[in-house]
Write a structure and sequence with these properties.
Blueprint lengths: L7 E7 L8 H9 L3 E9 L10 H6 L3 E4 L9 H16 L4 E5 L6 H9 L3 E6 L5 H5 L3 E4 H7 L25 H14 L6 E2 H11 L13 H6 L5 E7 L6 E7 L2
Parallel strand pairs: 1-2, 1-4, 2-3, 4-5, 5-6
Antiparallel strand pairs: 7-9, 8-9
Helix pairs in contact: 7-8
């Protein structure tokens, strides 16, 4: 069985729709899921609009793929990226893909890759259309990655909360609370308790762009603990003293 961190990933970046400033943070994020064995970026490198990417390509060993714009108003970059993705898919050299774009044109590509049983991670801005987000196994917002890269000297951190700019934090509304409750109820034992790790995995399946950092928390545990009016939390000891299993239950 392949371990999560041993997955070979193909990272394909749409230079036309992604800012170059956060490339290091994006690659660090991708490394949590596996090893980026293929790293390619697509764009028309004769245009000034993608010139900012060039220094980053050398630093991070990303292969640029030149794609001229044959006609005005048509995005040839998308087509080139999709064709390459299908070639890589059929070569069976990777275990999953990371599609870096905010463009909904890659929705069908993400769906097709998942149909082949491969992991699909999406990275894009919060303006990314929902169809592309839900077509991925996991979707990560660049705005969150950008916040993580804030200089440590200026960012005040706590154990439970990450330095995310207030403008970028999603509100914890009734819809989100209901998502938590329904996910806990779906997998809870007869006594009402559910493993928080399993709850988190189920929420990601229901909502691929779910991330505690979207709500200002580094992990799911402190997020749940902050909602003590809705949930009870139980930390259970294990054989390893430094490790605890976290369980959650809906308050009556």
């Amino acid at each position: 069985m392949i371990e999560k961190n041993d997955l070979k990933l193909a990272v394909l970046i749409d230079a036309d729709n992604i800012p170059y400033k956060n490339i290091k943070g994006m690659l660090d994020e991708i490394a949590k899921f596996g090893s980026p064995t293929i790293k390619r970026i697509y764009g028309d490198w004769t245009k000034r609009t993608v010139a900012g990417w060039k220094p980053a390509l050398l630093i991070h060993a990303i292969t640029p793929i030149q794609q001229y714009s044959y006609t005005t108003g048509k995005n040839a970059t998308d087509s080139a990226m999709i064709i390459d993705a299908m070639d890589i898919l059929h070569s069976q050299k990777v275990d999953g893909f990371c599609l870096v774009s905010s463009d909904s044109d890659f929705t069908r590509l993400a769906t097709r890759i998942r149909e082949s049983g491969m992991l699909v991670i999406g990275i894009g801005e919060k303006k990314t259309p929902n169809p592309f987000i839900v077509a991925c196994d996991k979707f990560i917002y660049i705005e969150i990655i950008s916040a993580i890269e804030m200089p440590k000297k200026t960012a005040k951190t706590t154990k439970s909360q990450h330095p995310v700019k207030k403008a970028e934090i999603d509100s914890i509304n009734s819809e989100f609370i209901q998502l938590l409750k329904s996910s806990i109820a779906d997998i809870a034992e007869d006594d009402g308790w559910a493993s928080l790790a399993a709850v988190g995995a189920l929420i990601n399946k229901k909502k691929p762009d779910f991330d505690p950092r979207n709500y200002g928390f580094q992990k799911l545990t402190p997020l749940i603990k902050s909602l003590k009016q809705y949930f009870d939390v139980d930390e259970r000891e294990t054989e390893r003293t430094h490790l605890k299993h976290i369980y959650v239950k809906i308050k009556k």
